[in-house]
Amino acid sequence: xxxxxxxxxxxxxxxxxxxxxxxxxxxxxxxxxxxxxxxxxxxxxxxxxxxxxxxxxxxxxxxxxxxxxxxxxxxxxxxxxxxxxxxxxxxxxxxxxxxxxxxxxxxxxxxxxxxxxxxxxxxxxxxxxxxxxxxxxxxxxxxxxxxxxxxxxxxxxxxxxxxxxxxxxxxxxxxxxxxxxxxxxxxxxxxxxxxxxxxxxxxxxxxxxxxxxxxxxxxxxxxxxxxxxxxxxxxxxxxxxxxxxxxxxxxxxxxxxxxxxxxxxxxxxxxxxxxxxxxxxxxxxxxxxxxxxxxxxxxxxxxxxxxxxxxxxxxxxxxxxxxxxxxxxxxxxxxxxxxxxxxxxxxxxxxxxxxxxxxxxxxxxxxxxxxxx
Length: 373
Fold this sequence. Notes:
The protein has helices spanning 22-25, 62-65, 69-87, 174-177, 191-198, 285-298, 346-362, and strands at residues 11-13, 19-21, 41-44, 52-55, 92-100, 117-125, 132-141, 144-153, 162-167, 183-187, 208-211, 218-219, 228-235, 240-247, 258-265, 312-315, 320-323, 365-369. The protein has three domains: 1-67, no CATH class; 92-219, no CATH class; 228-369, no CATH class. The protein is rod-shaped and about 120 Å long. The protein is α+β, with helices and mostly antiparallel strands. The strands form six sheets. It has a five-stranded mixed β-sheet.
C-alpha cells in the first residue's frame, strides 16, 4: 500500500505494546492505541481514503486533545526504531575516515592546502558492538542529565553507546551536542521518511547528523608523495652526487656512508632575486651540486672536487668542464680527490657559498649531518 501525503496515522500500538500497521491490524479484534497519547484508535478501512487509524474521541481527554501528527510521528518513530534495532541482525553505519601520510604531521614541505591525506568511506556493523535498545533513557555526563529518545547500548562497553535523537520539529539541543556523547540525529517528516531510514544503511547527510563521533586519522602508507625533491649527498669517500629520484617521503632514507645530505624542493620558485632570475630556465641539479660542495666545505669537511679547483675551466662550446693543466684529458669532478695539483679557488668557493646562503633564506632546505663524522 502506498503512503499518501496527508497526515494520517497508519500505525498504532496493540494491547501487547507491539507497533502494528493498519494493513495488519484490520483483521484483528484487538484494541489499538495511539503511540503518543494512548487514546484508543478506530480503524478506518474504507474504499475512498487510504486505510488509517483515527482517534476514538469517545475516550478523549486533555492529553488526546494535544496529540498532533508531529507528536504521533515522534512517538511512532521511537517505537519503529526500537523495533528496527531489536529485529535487525545488522545495522550498517557509514562514516568518513581520513588516511594521512605517515610524515604529514611534521612534514616541512607541506603547505596548509596540500592534500597529504584522503577521506575514505568506512562501514561498521552497529549490532556487533551494541546489544540493547531503550526508549527515553536518561544519560549523565559530567553532572548534566540528558534524556535520549533512544539509547543503543552495550552494558559491558558503555563507551560505544549511541544516543538516538529524532527531529520532527525540534533539533537536538546544543548542550547535548556538545556533551561528547555519540549522537545520531534523524530528521523525519513522515512515516515514509522513517521507513526509508530503517530500510537502508545509516549514512550522514542533511537529514542524518552525527555528533561526538571522533574517528582518529589512520596512517596510509600508500599515499602518493606530493613533492619531488633533489638531494645532494656527500660521502665518507669524499665523493658527491645529486640524487634526482627523491621525494618528500623518501628523502629521510639516509645513505649509510653519507656524511652530509641537502634536500630541496625542485618545483619551488627559487627566489634568488633579480641577479639570479635567469637561472629559472636552467636545471637546478648542477647548482645544488656546487652549493652542496661549498656548504660541505664551510662545515669543516676536507672537500676536494674539481668544481672548486682554481684550475677548473668550463668549455661553453661543448658544455663540459676541463682542467687547465690537462686540457685534452677527460675527467670527472671527483678526480680531484687524488689529484696532487688540486688548489681551491677561494673566490669561486665564496661566491657559490653566498649563492646557497641566499637560496636558503628564501626556500625550504633540509640539512642532515652524520653525528659520528
